[in-house]
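Module 6 notes. Inverse folding takes a fixed backbone as the condition and produces residue identities as the prediction. Think of it as a translation problem where the source language is geometry and the target language is the twenty amino acids. Below is one complete input and output pair. Work through it position by position during the lab.
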């Protein structure tokens, strides 16, 4: 097994816990001193591979580095589920990318993107087959078991969430998947007319019984569990209700444990409304952020109890849920470990007559620091002494000593690929398989998932922990900066009192500015004739030319922009949302909130003013300006939203939005009540047509002109940037975007060449306003302090008409 030495690394000293390592990593309290601040380790390097000899070692969009150990192979895109065949010869991977794709990996020309099941030869670490079929989708759940009727045959069952099915395949000896004699079992949704699942079940996690005769299906949208009788390939017994939006599940003896990540049950409104409710989800400790415990022996109906895993969010300090995201019962069934992805914790639940939480361990990176390590998958050794935890927010696996389930101890970290989301141990516990949902970044326009095989006997935890931490953050001196203070001890900026985000839609740097700065004109789609205002602002003020989007889709992008992080629930659901509800949403529901919330919540906690123009209001059930479901928007936005500002509606142009912003913001500024922070969303150019982009550019010019002629211009910084880069090309990387920093204190004609990401903008806003970091994402990002000068130029901007 792993060589455990006396580690001199602070991961294991978090939150007062004990372990083999000690304080080489500073706490956040140290990070707030004038001596140290944090930045991403990329420096000025762009996104991309770092070595031809090790193609899986790469710089990521967020400026971190991945250096996965062991053997690695590409398996598909948005891989979320994994199962080992009973003999360990194959790993079956569920690829859950709902975007149509015909792209092939340059690493392995036989691996395509999109929805598929991939079969990997675990000895050769090569994808030997990939099952794809028209009209067939997949989502997380996959199990491989021996057919009870023919033990020589391996069956694979996989969830097809979008179609409400569980697909059944035969796994051939050469690693191919062939539809079974009964190719699918339909899973019906509830028929409650008030329930906003629109009769969808959305099967997700699958759990097989020890004898392989039953497979339990967790229905994420229906809030139920059903049982498939494997010999007959048919449903057995009625659906069993559990909590809200259940996802993870595991068997502990004759009890099925189900983790409920949701916060409330969505319902249809009697009539559409023009605004969502601004509220905290109601308290329901047994169904929200809870653990359902189902006794499989009770007759005639299985018994059900629930364990509260979190307190009800208060909407101010605890905004998002704890997100119980994975479960690992101990071999004797006495305890279960639950990964709490939203609060960086492993909770230990005693599974006696009255199941309840009895212990656990903190997995925050810094003592009392912000959340963001995101433990989202577990694997427990067969003797119960080692617990492996996928840390999606650290690109690492944490190794815990679990011999005493009530007192877990941190031992160290093992580097992985980008965003580990599933783990599996070989039958002998000597090999750990890690499924990395985002792998190493984009290649041929797709973020490829990878499977990582780690020989645990060859892991030196001293070296691997150092490597994992070095790839995560850099400690840098924090010089005194009167314009952009880089520590909380310096307080807010002495000169900039107002920050405005102007968020555009999904464009790469080259698509918009390929004719200027560090661009390639051959990729230009909307040049200066279409976007004269963007070009004028980029040439006059500061332009980020080495910036990358933290997300490759809009749903997660909004979370990074406002919260510095996207919850594990968001990351899992974002590419399959079109199949979940009749009205599509953009990941702005209570289940998507980070624990500390968004910049609006940060401002509210510190008694500062803010105004929202269209941001974070596209909750489930939103349809072109109308709200069909009772899903609340963040409570912190109540009375802070300009409800006259149009949200996403293709019938409304961005110029109308700009006029409303100018009216509302202008009135506030004239009255001496301009907010410290404003979020302005310009979604009209989402269609990507030249006319829509030109209209968006005219709106941008109108907004900057209005602010620069307002009484607060001398104290303002405006950040202009797209939410993500999808659908466009760039000569550096498909994730490259741009940001323009507009302010009297912005350096003129400045090209910022440091590696930056979307979250860098949030971090810089927090520094200007004197706010603490919301998450590890913004704490460890590189900031944009170099874009500012102490020599202001107050001339206003005149829009190009």
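Target side of the pair, the amino acids:
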């Amino acid at each position: 097994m792993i060589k455990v030495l006396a580690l001199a690394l602070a991961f294991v000293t978090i939150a007062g816990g004990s372990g083999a390592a000690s304080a080489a990593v500073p706490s956040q309290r140290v990070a707030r001193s004038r001596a140290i601040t944090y930045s991403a380790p990329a420096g000025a390097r762009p996104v991309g591979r770092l070595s031809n000899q090790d193609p899986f070692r790469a710089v990521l969009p967020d400026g971190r580095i991945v250096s996965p150990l062991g053997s690695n192979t590409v398996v598909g895109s948005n891989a979320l589920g994994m199962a080992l065949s009973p003999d360990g010869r194959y790993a079956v991977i569920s690829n859950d990318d709902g975007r149509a794709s015909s792209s092939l990996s340059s690493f392995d020309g036989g691996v395509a993107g999109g929805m598929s099941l991939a079969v990997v030869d675990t000895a050769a670490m090569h994808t030997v087959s990939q099952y794809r079929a028209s009209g067939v989708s997949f989502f997380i759940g996959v199990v491989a078991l021996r057919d009870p009727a023919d033990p020589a045959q391996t069956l694979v069952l996989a969830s097809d969430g979008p179609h409400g099915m569980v697909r059944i395949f035969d796994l051939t000896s050469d690693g191919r998947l062939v539809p079974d004699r009964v190719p699918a079992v339909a899973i019906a949704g509830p028929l409650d007319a008030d329930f906003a699942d629109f009769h969808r079940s959305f099967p997700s996690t699958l759990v097989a019984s020890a004898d392989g005769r039953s497979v339990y299906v967790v229905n994420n949208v229906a809030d139920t569990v059903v049982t498939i009788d494997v010999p007959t390939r048919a449903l057995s017994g009625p659906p069993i209700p559990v909590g809200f939006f259940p996802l993870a599940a595991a068997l502990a003896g004759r009890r099925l444990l189900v983790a409920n990540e949701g916060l409330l049950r969505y319902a249809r409104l009697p009539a559409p409304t023009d605004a969502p409710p601004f509220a905290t989800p109601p308290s329901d400790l047994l169904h929200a952020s809870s653990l359902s415990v189902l006794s499989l022996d009770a007759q005639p109906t299985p018994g059900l109890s629930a364990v509260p895993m979190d307190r009800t969010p208060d909407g101010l300090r605890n905004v998002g849920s704890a997100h119980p995201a994975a479960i690992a019962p101990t071999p004797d069934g006495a305890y279960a470990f639950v990964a709490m992805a939203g609060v960086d914790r492993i909770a230990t639940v005693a599974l006696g007559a009255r199941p309840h939480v009895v212990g656990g361990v903190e997995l925050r990176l810094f003592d009392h620091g912000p959340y963001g390590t995101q433990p989202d998958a577990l694997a427990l050794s067969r003797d119960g002494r080692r617990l492996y935890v996928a840390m999606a927010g650290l690109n690492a696996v944490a190794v815990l000593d679990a011999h005493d389930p009530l007192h877990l101890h941190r031992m160290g970290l093992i580097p992985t690929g980008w965003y580990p989301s599933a783990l599996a141990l070989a039958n002998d516990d000597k090999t750990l398989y890690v499924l990395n949902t985002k792998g190493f970044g984009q290649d041929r326009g797709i973020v490829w998932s990878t499977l990582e095989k780690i020989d645990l006997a060859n892991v030196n935890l001293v070296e691997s922990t150092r490597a994992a931490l070095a790839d995560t953050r850099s400690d840098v001196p924090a010089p005194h900066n009167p314009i952009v203070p880089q520590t909380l001890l310096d307080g807010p900026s002495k000169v900039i009192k107002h920050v405005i985000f102007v968020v555009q839609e999904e464009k790469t740097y080259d698509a918009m500015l390929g004719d200027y700065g560090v661009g390639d004109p051959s990729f230009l789609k909307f040049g200066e004739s279409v976007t004269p205002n963007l070009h004028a602002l980029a040439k006059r003020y500061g332009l980020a030319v080495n910036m990358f989007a933290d997300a490759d889709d809009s749903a997660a992008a909004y979370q990074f922009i406002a919260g510095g992080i996207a919850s594990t629930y968001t990351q899992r659901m974002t590419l399959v949302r079109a199949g979940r509800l009749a009205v599509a949403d953009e990941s702005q529901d209570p289940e998507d909130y980070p624990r500390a919330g968004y910049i609006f919540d940060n401002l509210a906690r510190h008694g500062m003013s803010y105004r929202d123009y269209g941001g974070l209001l596209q909750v489930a059930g939103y349809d072109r300006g109308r709200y069909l479901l009772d899903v609340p928007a963040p409570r912190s936005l109540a009375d802070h939203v300009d409800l006259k500002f149009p949200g996403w509606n293709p019938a409304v142009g961005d110029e109308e939005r700009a006029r409303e912003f100018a009216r509302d913001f202008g009135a506030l500024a004239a009255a001496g009540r301009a907010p410290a922070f404003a979020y302005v969303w310009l979604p009209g150019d989402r269609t990507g047509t030249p006319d829509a982009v030109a209209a968006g550019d005219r709106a941008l010019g109108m907004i900057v002109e209005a602010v620069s002629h307002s009484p607060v211009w001398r104290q303002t910084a405006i950040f202009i940037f797209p939410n993500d880069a999808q659908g466009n090309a760039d000569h550096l990387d498909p994730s490259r975007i741009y940001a323009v920093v507009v302010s009297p204190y912005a350096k003129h004609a400045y090209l910022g060449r440091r590696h930056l990401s979307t979250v860098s903008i949030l971090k810089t806003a927090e520094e200007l306003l004197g706010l603490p970091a919301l998450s590890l994402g913004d704490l460890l990002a590189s900031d944009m302090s170099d874009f500012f000068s102490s020599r202001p130029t107050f001339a206003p901007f005149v829009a190009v008409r």
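Reference fact for the lab report: The chain has eleven helices and 45 strands.
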